Amino acid sequence: MAALFHHLCRIFNMLSKPRDATLEEVPVLDLSEAATFEGRRNLACILRKAAVDTGFFYIRNHGISAGQLEGVFDASRRYFALPLEARMGDLVDNVTRRGYSPMSASQQDGFHPDLKESYDFGYDLPADDPDVVAGLFGHGPNKWPDHFPDFQKRIAPYIDAVLGEAKTLFRLFAISLDAPEDYFTRHLNKPMMQTRLMHYPPQSSLTQDDVFGTAPHVDIGFITILAQDPIGGLELQKKDGEWVSAPHLDGTFVVNLGDLFKRVSNDIYSSTYHRVVNRSGRQRYSIPSFINLDYHTPVSCLESCIVPGDVAHYPPVTSGEVLESTLRHYEVALENGAY
Predict the structure, then answer these.
(1) Is pLDDT at 330 greater than 70 in this prediction?
(2) What number of other Cβ atoms are within 10 A of residue 112's Cβ?
(3) How would you classify residue 53: left for phi > 0, otherwise alpha for psi between -120 and 50, otherwise beta?
């Protein structure tokens, strides 16, 4: 009886939408203030508090127009409306990480496969780039679907625009950690970057309490910049264990930190568990961009983050090695019979 009660409570928690996060918990940063040094200092203070508390914040006045963003969402909706047979012709390359991943292709440890499908793009490199020729993980030309002639024209400028906003954010992060302003941006020459079109179908049944659009997880890299449609479904877990919703706010992106910022900050900054549950009964679309430093960039704790009497909590690593090893562990590969 106790086990049944516990199970029913967990189902209730899944069916019940959490409250929306307050703007104190997930604040909004106005990036128009980043044009001046004083403005960047002020933004860095707000960012630091958010990074310590929840690891989540919004950005507005980011320079990406509503029209440009809607063009990308429209391309995404059209792509995922194609017959599955057509989409399966674009399967992701497990080295370059470009292409289509079908429903249930990703899975977090301890959970059922995620109820989502996606299409990944990256930092576009020519086929004769030395790192591409060498087969370096995450490097390559983008794989553009043949189905729509305007697909590349919509997606490629968006990727460039998001990278530009990421550079602004990395400067703010550097200031917030008492590092030179270009501490991170000097290592964004061939960024380990993925812009991902994502489609979440309605979850017809939530009777299994470990079935999610995206199961609870932390991001492994530095930062994620998320465009989400008004459907909602993104939820984050506060330090006290409470789940709260990060709803769609017009004109904003959601930004969250990953584990590599925990390393750099010596656990001062938070890499927060989050999940997606599509309770809406409608199709949900989102566009996360995972922005990370160049593959061979050393990642170690900043001296400014080691308080007296403490030591670095993590050994030095490189950005790409962490990303590659973790992605290969967590993602269900095609050849292993996921579908």
Answers:
(1) no
(2) 13
(3) alpha
List, in sequence order, the alpha helices (H) in 141-294: 151-176, 259-264
> Model confidence at 332, in pLDDT bands (50, 70, 90)?
very low
Residue-wise pLDDT for 230-257, tens only, equals 998 999 999 999 999 999 999 999 999 9
Question: Maximum CA pair distance of the chain?
Answer: 64
CA-nearest of 66, 127, 123 to 98 is 123
110 CB neighbour count, 10 Å cutoff: 8
State yes or no: pLDDT of 220 exceeds 50: yes
Closest CA to 116 of 11, 236, 212: 212
**Whole-Å CA distances, 249 to 59, 63, 112, 225:** 10, 16, 30, 14
Q: Which of 333, 338, 337 is nearest to 93 (CA)?
A: 333
**Which has the closest alpha carbon to 293: 216, 201, 190?**
190
CB 184 within 8 A of CB 274: no
- Within a 10 A sphere around the Cβ of 324, how many other Cβ atoms? 18
CA 61, CA 82: separation in Å to the nearest integer?
34
Superfamily of domain 24-336: B-lactam Antibiotic, Isopenicillin N Synthase; Chain (2.60.120.330)
pTM across the whole model: 0.91
User: Across residues 286-299, what is the average pLDDT?
Assistant: 97
Are the beta carbons of 255 and 56 closer than 8 angstroms? Answer: yes
Q: If you count DSSP H runs as helices and E runs as strands, how many of each does the chain have, helices first?
A: 8, 14
Backbone angles phi, psi at 165, to 5 degrees: -70, -35
Task: Look up tokens 């012709």; give the residue.
Answer: 89
Task: State whether the Cα torsion 21-25-31-33 is positive or negative.
Answer: positive
DSSP 34: G
Whole-angstrom CA distances from 183 to 44, 211, 302 are 14, 40, 10
